[in-house]
């Protein structure tokens, strides 16, 4: 039991230091697997969770017609040749007007083989180029 506890602890320490963990078992046989091809049979989506100094979370209003004006975290598709981090920074810049940096990967979600979403905790690293609005009750007022 003590050696299992030590092994678990060292695994957690490796994960927290960004080293990841070794995958030794796969629950899908090779005959069932197929290569993932970005924009052909799989879509990678990045999403950023960004808090300000008041612990408010950054949300953006969607511009697409099917979900126009709905509030979301800054998110979007990874382009071919782009890293996950580059895509996250680009999406935050396009949608919220901020330069940003990922802090850590919070969550990976998948919906079958169709899409995989990578959710990052991120921080603002530069000035904003858009006017932001702050939700107060049911009203939106310009932030100071």
From TrEMBL:
Molecular function per GO: 8-oxo-dGDP phosphatase activity; 8-oxo-GDP phosphatase activity
| Annotated Nudix hydrolase domain residues | 37-144
Concerning Pfam families, the annotation shows: NUDIX (PF00293)
Q: Which key words tag this protein in UniProt? A: Hydrolase
Query: Which InterPro entries does the entry link to?
Result: Nudix_hydrolase, NUDIX_hydrolase-like_dom_sf, NUDIX_hydrolase_CS, NUDIX_hydrolase_dom
**Hey, which family's this protein in?**
Belongs to the Nudix hydrolase family.
Name it: Nudix hydrolase 18
């Amino acid at each position: 039991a003590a050696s299992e506890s030590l092994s678990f602890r060292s695994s957690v320490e490796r994960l927290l230091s960004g080293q990841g963990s070794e995958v030794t078992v796969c629950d899908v046989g090779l005959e069932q697997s197929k290569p993932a091809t970005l924009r052909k049979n799989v879509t990678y989506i990045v999403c950023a969770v960004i808090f300000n100094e008041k612990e408010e979370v950054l949300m953006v209003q969607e511009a697409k017609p099917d979900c126009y004006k709905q509030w979301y975290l800054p998110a979007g598709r990874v382009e071919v040749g782009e890293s996950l981090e580059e895509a996250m920074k680009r999406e935050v810049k396009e949608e919220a007007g901020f330069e940003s940096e990922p802090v850590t990967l919070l969550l990976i979600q998948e919906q079958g083989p169709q899409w995989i979403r990578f959710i990052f905790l991120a921080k603002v690293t530069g000035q904003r180029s858009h006017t932001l609005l702050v939700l107060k009750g049911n009203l939106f007022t310009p932030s100071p």
